[in-house]
Amino acid sequence: MTTAVRTVGIRKSYGTHEVLKGIDIDVAHGEVLCILGPSGSGKSTLLRCINHLEVPDGGYAWVDGQIIGYALRGDVLQELPVHQLRQQQSQLGMVFQHFNLFSHKTVLENVIEGPVVVRRQSRDTAIAKARALLEMVGMSAREQAYPAQLSGGQKQRVAIARALAMEPRVMLFDEPTSALDPELVGEVLEVMRRLASSGTTMIVVTHEIGFAREVADRVVVMIDGEVRECGPAQSVLSDPADPRVRAFLSRFL
Ligand code: ADP
Ligand code: MG
Questions:
Q1: Calpha distance 32→7 (Å, rounded)
Q2: Quick one: which of 7, 115, 225, 250 could link to 121 by a disulfide (CB 3.0–4.6 Å)?
Protein backbone atom coordinates (compact mmCIF):
# COMPACT_ATOMS: atom_id res chain seq x y z
CA MET A 1 0.00 0.00 0.00
CA THR A 2 1.18 3.52 -0.72
CA THR A 3 1.10 6.43 1.68
CA ALA A 4 -1.68 8.98 1.18
CA VAL A 5 -1.14 11.09 4.28
CA ARG A 6 1.86 11.27 6.57
CA THR A 7 2.51 13.61 9.45
CA VAL A 8 5.89 13.82 11.10
CA GLY A 9 6.45 15.56 14.41
CA ILE A 10 3.52 17.96 14.25
CA ARG A 11 3.64 20.34 17.19
CA LYS A 12 1.30 23.19 18.06
CA SER A 13 1.02 25.42 21.11
CA TYR A 14 -1.42 28.16 22.00
CA GLY A 15 0.50 30.43 24.37
CA THR A 16 2.10 28.11 26.91
CA HIS A 17 -0.40 25.31 26.27
CA GLU A 18 1.21 22.62 24.14
CA VAL A 19 -1.77 21.13 22.33
CA LEU A 20 0.10 18.80 19.94
CA LYS A 21 3.35 17.30 21.18
CA GLY A 22 4.75 15.77 18.03
CA ILE A 23 2.20 13.74 16.10
CA ASP A 24 3.27 11.05 13.65
CA ILE A 25 0.56 9.33 11.68
CA ASP A 26 0.43 7.46 8.39
CA VAL A 27 -2.59 6.72 6.27
CA ALA A 28 -2.37 4.50 3.21
CA HIS A 29 -4.39 5.08 0.05
CA GLY A 30 -7.89 3.75 0.50
CA GLU A 31 -7.43 3.41 4.23
CA VAL A 32 -9.82 4.67 6.91
CA LEU A 33 -8.12 6.00 10.04
CA CYS A 34 -10.34 6.88 12.99
CA ILE A 35 -8.99 9.25 15.62
CA LEU A 36 -10.52 8.89 19.06
CA GLY A 37 -9.72 10.70 22.26
CA PRO A 38 -11.16 12.85 25.03
CA SER A 39 -12.35 16.38 24.37
CA GLY A 40 -9.41 18.78 24.37
CA SER A 41 -6.84 16.15 23.38
CA GLY A 42 -5.97 18.01 20.15
CA LYS A 43 -7.89 16.04 17.52
CA SER A 44 -9.41 19.06 15.75
CA THR A 45 -6.13 20.93 15.94
CA LEU A 46 -4.39 18.00 14.27
CA LEU A 47 -6.86 17.99 11.35
CA ARG A 48 -6.47 21.74 11.04
CA CYS A 49 -2.68 21.38 11.03
CA ILE A 50 -2.85 18.70 8.33
CA ASN A 51 -4.69 21.02 5.96
CA HIS A 52 -2.81 24.09 7.18
CA LEU A 53 -5.87 25.93 8.47
CA GLU A 54 -3.47 26.18 11.41
CA VAL A 55 0.24 26.46 10.74
CA PRO A 56 2.07 23.91 12.91
CA ASP A 57 4.90 25.22 15.08
CA GLY A 58 6.92 22.22 14.03
CA GLY A 59 6.67 19.18 11.83
CA TYR A 60 5.11 18.60 8.45
CA ALA A 61 2.18 16.93 6.75
CA TRP A 62 2.47 15.25 3.37
CA VAL A 63 -0.45 14.40 1.14
CA ASP A 64 0.42 12.20 -1.83
CA GLY A 65 4.05 13.15 -1.38
CA GLN A 66 3.46 16.92 -1.37
CA ILE A 67 4.38 18.85 1.75
CA ILE A 68 1.35 20.92 2.71
CA GLY A 69 2.13 24.63 2.90
CA TYR A 70 5.70 24.44 1.65
CA ALA A 71 7.72 23.92 -1.48
CA LEU A 72 11.32 22.86 -1.87
CA ARG A 73 13.38 25.51 -3.62
CA GLY A 74 16.80 23.99 -4.12
CA ASP A 75 17.27 22.38 -0.72
CA VAL A 76 15.37 25.05 1.21
CA LEU A 77 11.75 24.71 2.31
CA GLN A 78 9.81 27.87 1.62
CA GLU A 79 6.24 28.74 2.56
CA LEU A 80 3.88 28.48 -0.37
CA PRO A 81 2.22 31.64 -1.64
CA VAL A 82 -1.41 31.83 -0.52
CA HIS A 83 -2.93 30.94 -3.90
CA GLN A 84 -0.86 27.75 -4.09
CA LEU A 85 -1.74 26.87 -0.51
CA ARG A 86 -5.44 27.30 -1.35
CA GLN A 87 -4.96 24.98 -4.32
CA GLN A 88 -3.43 22.33 -2.04
CA GLN A 89 -6.16 22.79 0.55
CA SER A 90 -8.79 22.28 -2.11
CA GLN A 91 -7.44 18.73 -2.50
CA LEU A 92 -8.33 17.94 1.11
CA GLY A 93 -12.05 17.51 1.66
CA MET A 94 -13.11 18.69 5.09
CA VAL A 95 -16.40 17.92 6.84
CA PHE A 96 -17.05 19.74 10.09
CA GLN A 97 -19.32 19.13 13.04
CA HIS A 98 -21.42 22.18 12.14
CA PHE A 99 -21.85 21.59 8.38
CA ASN A 100 -20.66 25.09 7.31
CA LEU A 101 -22.96 25.21 4.27
CA PHE A 102 -23.62 28.53 2.54
CA SER A 103 -27.01 29.41 4.00
CA HIS A 104 -28.05 31.73 1.14
CA LYS A 105 -27.36 29.09 -1.52
CA THR A 106 -29.40 26.04 -2.50
CA VAL A 107 -28.13 22.50 -2.00
CA LEU A 108 -27.09 22.27 -5.66
CA GLU A 109 -25.37 25.68 -5.59
CA ASN A 110 -23.49 24.65 -2.45
CA VAL A 111 -22.13 21.58 -4.19
CA ILE A 112 -21.07 23.30 -7.44
CA GLU A 113 -19.52 26.36 -5.75
CA GLY A 114 -16.01 24.92 -5.33
CA PRO A 115 -15.73 23.25 -8.74
CA VAL A 116 -16.98 26.38 -10.54
CA VAL A 117 -15.14 29.04 -8.51
CA VAL A 118 -11.92 27.26 -7.54
CA ARG A 119 -11.58 24.68 -10.33
CA ARG A 120 -13.15 26.87 -13.03
CA GLN A 121 -15.31 24.02 -14.29
CA SER A 122 -18.27 24.91 -16.51
CA ARG A 123 -21.58 25.11 -14.64
CA ASP A 124 -22.97 22.27 -16.75
CA THR A 125 -20.09 19.94 -15.92
CA ALA A 126 -20.25 20.89 -12.25
CA ILE A 127 -24.03 20.41 -12.11
CA ALA A 128 -23.86 16.97 -13.73
CA LYS A 129 -21.25 15.86 -11.22
CA ALA A 130 -23.07 17.47 -8.29
CA ARG A 131 -26.26 15.61 -9.19
CA ALA A 132 -24.41 12.29 -9.21
CA LEU A 133 -22.97 13.07 -5.78
CA LEU A 134 -26.34 14.18 -4.39
CA GLU A 135 -27.74 10.89 -5.65
CA MET A 136 -24.96 9.06 -3.84
CA VAL A 137 -25.75 10.78 -0.52
CA GLY A 138 -29.51 10.39 -1.05
CA MET A 139 -30.23 14.13 -1.45
CA SER A 140 -31.30 14.36 -5.10
CA ALA A 141 -34.86 15.27 -4.24
CA ARG A 142 -33.73 18.33 -2.28
CA GLU A 143 -31.32 19.97 -4.70
CA GLN A 144 -33.34 23.21 -4.74
CA ALA A 145 -33.76 23.39 -0.95
CA TYR A 146 -31.89 25.86 1.25
CA PRO A 147 -29.89 24.56 4.23
CA ALA A 148 -32.39 26.01 6.74
CA GLN A 149 -35.05 23.72 5.25
CA LEU A 150 -33.00 20.58 5.93
CA SER A 151 -32.48 18.39 8.98
CA GLY A 152 -28.99 18.17 10.46
CA GLY A 153 -28.43 14.76 8.91
CA GLN A 154 -29.46 16.06 5.49
CA LYS A 155 -27.17 19.10 5.86
CA GLN A 156 -24.27 16.87 6.73
CA ARG A 157 -24.92 14.62 3.73
CA VAL A 158 -24.89 17.73 1.51
CA ALA A 159 -21.66 18.87 3.18
CA ILE A 160 -20.11 15.50 2.33
CA ALA A 161 -21.26 15.81 -1.31
CA ARG A 162 -19.84 19.33 -1.43
CA ALA A 163 -16.44 18.16 -0.18
CA LEU A 164 -16.42 15.24 -2.64
CA ALA A 165 -17.21 17.55 -5.55
CA MET A 166 -13.63 18.82 -5.35
CA GLU A 167 -12.38 15.28 -5.96
CA PRO A 168 -10.18 15.40 -2.89
CA ARG A 169 -7.20 13.13 -2.36
CA VAL A 170 -8.35 12.56 1.20
CA MET A 171 -11.46 13.29 3.23
CA LEU A 172 -11.04 14.71 6.74
CA PHE A 173 -14.05 14.42 9.04
CA ASP A 174 -14.16 16.29 12.35
CA GLU A 175 -16.89 14.73 14.51
CA PRO A 176 -19.39 14.77 11.63
CA THR A 177 -22.22 13.33 13.74
CA SER A 178 -21.61 15.02 17.09
CA ALA A 179 -24.08 17.86 16.48
CA LEU A 180 -26.85 15.58 15.25
CA ASP A 181 -29.93 14.32 17.04
CA PRO A 182 -29.35 10.62 17.76
CA GLU A 183 -31.93 9.46 15.21
CA LEU A 184 -30.04 11.28 12.41
CA VAL A 185 -26.58 9.85 13.14
CA GLY A 186 -27.19 6.60 11.25
CA GLU A 187 -27.91 8.14 7.85
CA VAL A 188 -24.64 10.10 7.92
CA LEU A 189 -22.59 7.11 9.09
CA GLU A 190 -24.20 5.07 6.31
CA VAL A 191 -22.93 7.55 3.68
CA MET A 192 -19.48 7.45 5.27
CA ARG A 193 -19.52 3.66 5.31
CA ARG A 194 -20.33 3.65 1.61
CA LEU A 195 -17.49 6.10 0.91
CA ALA A 196 -15.09 3.93 2.85
CA SER A 197 -16.01 0.82 0.91
CA SER A 198 -15.57 2.68 -2.38
CA GLY A 199 -11.91 3.14 -1.47
CA THR A 200 -11.88 6.77 -0.33
CA THR A 201 -8.96 7.66 1.92
CA MET A 202 -10.50 8.99 5.13
CA ILE A 203 -9.36 10.42 8.46
CA VAL A 204 -12.32 10.49 10.81
CA VAL A 205 -12.34 12.12 14.24
CA THR A 206 -15.29 10.55 15.99
CA HIS A 207 -16.80 9.30 19.23
CA GLU A 208 -18.73 6.63 17.34
CA ILE A 209 -16.86 3.59 18.61
CA GLY A 210 -19.16 1.24 16.71
CA PHE A 211 -18.32 2.97 13.43
CA ALA A 212 -14.61 2.84 14.25
CA ARG A 213 -14.80 -0.86 15.10
CA GLU A 214 -16.67 -1.69 11.93
CA VAL A 215 -15.17 0.66 9.33
CA ALA A 216 -11.71 1.80 10.46
CA ASP A 217 -8.68 -0.05 9.20
CA ARG A 218 -6.68 1.52 11.98
CA VAL A 219 -7.48 3.57 15.06
CA VAL A 220 -5.43 6.25 16.78
CA VAL A 221 -6.19 7.31 20.34
CA MET A 222 -4.94 10.76 21.26
CA ILE A 223 -4.66 11.96 24.85
CA ASP A 224 -3.20 15.32 25.88
CA GLY A 225 -1.68 16.04 22.48
CA GLU A 226 0.00 12.67 22.05
CA VAL A 227 -0.77 9.49 20.15
CA ARG A 228 -1.12 6.99 22.98
CA GLU A 229 -2.26 4.05 20.91
CA CYS A 230 -2.28 3.25 17.23
CA GLY A 231 -3.09 0.03 15.47
CA PRO A 232 -5.75 -2.15 13.90
CA ALA A 233 -9.22 -1.20 15.14
CA GLN A 234 -9.83 -4.57 16.69
CA SER A 235 -6.73 -4.64 18.87
CA VAL A 236 -6.81 -0.97 19.93
CA LEU A 237 -10.50 -1.05 20.83
CA SER A 238 -10.59 -4.46 22.47
CA ASP A 239 -7.24 -4.67 24.14
CA PRO A 240 -5.44 -1.32 24.52
CA ALA A 241 -2.08 -1.50 26.21
CA ASP A 242 -2.05 2.05 27.60
CA PRO A 243 -3.93 2.45 30.93
CA ARG A 244 -5.19 5.95 30.05
CA VAL A 245 -6.53 4.64 26.76
CA ARG A 246 -8.21 1.80 28.65
CA ALA A 247 -9.82 4.33 30.99
CA PHE A 248 -10.98 6.49 28.09
CA LEU A 249 -12.45 3.60 26.12
CA SER A 250 -14.16 2.10 29.17
CA ARG A 251 -16.60 5.02 29.06
CA PHE A 252 -18.06 3.59 25.88
CA LEU A 253 -18.59 0.07 27.17
P1 ADP B 1 -10.30 18.17 20.52
O2 ADP B 1 -10.72 18.38 19.11
O3 ADP B 1 -9.58 16.89 20.76
O4 ADP B 1 -11.44 18.34 21.49
P5 ADP B 1 -8.91 20.66 20.14
O6 ADP B 1 -7.89 20.39 19.11
O7 ADP B 1 -10.14 21.37 19.73
O8 ADP B 1 -9.25 19.30 20.91
O9 ADP B 1 -8.27 21.50 21.30
C10 ADP B 1 -7.14 21.08 22.02
C11 ADP B 1 -6.81 22.16 23.05
O12 ADP B 1 -6.38 23.32 22.37
C13 ADP B 1 -7.98 22.57 23.90
O14 ADP B 1 -7.51 22.78 25.22
C15 ADP B 1 -8.43 23.88 23.29
O16 ADP B 1 -9.00 24.72 24.25
C17 ADP B 1 -7.12 24.44 22.77
N18 ADP B 1 -7.32 25.29 21.58
C19 ADP B 1 -7.79 24.88 20.37
N20 ADP B 1 -7.82 25.89 19.49
C21 ADP B 1 -7.35 26.98 20.14
C22 ADP B 1 -7.13 28.36 19.78
N23 ADP B 1 -7.39 28.78 18.54
N24 ADP B 1 -6.62 29.17 20.72
C25 ADP B 1 -6.33 28.72 21.96
N26 ADP B 1 -6.53 27.46 22.38
C27 ADP B 1 -7.02 26.58 21.49
MG1 MG C 1 -12.57 18.68 18.25
A1: 15
A2: 115
Q: Where are the alpha helices (DSSP H) in 107-242?
A: 107-117, 123-136, 152-164, 182-197, 209-215, 233-238
Question: What pLDDT, in 10s, does the model give residues 27-68?
Answer: 999 999 999 999 999 999 999 999 999 999 999 999 999 999
Pocket of ligand 1 (CB under 6 A): 14, 19, 37, 39-45
Q: How high is the mean pLDDT of the chain?
A: 95
Long-range contacts (CB closer than 8 Å, 24 or more residues apart) made by 108-111: 108/134, 108/143, 108/144, 110/147, 110/158, 110/162, 111/158, 111/161, 111/162, 111/165
Atom of ligand 1 nearest to the CA of 15: 25
Residue 75 CA to ligand 2 centre (angstroms): 36
The answer to whether residues 41 and 223 touch, using CB atoms and an 8 Å cutoff, is yes
Taking only the tens place, the pLDDT of each residue in 141-195 is 999 999 999 999 999 999 999 999 999 999 999 999 999 999 999 999 999 999 9
CA distance 137 to 172: 17
Q: Would you say how long the chain is, in residues? A: 253
- Specify the pairing of strand 76-79 against strand 92-95: unpaired
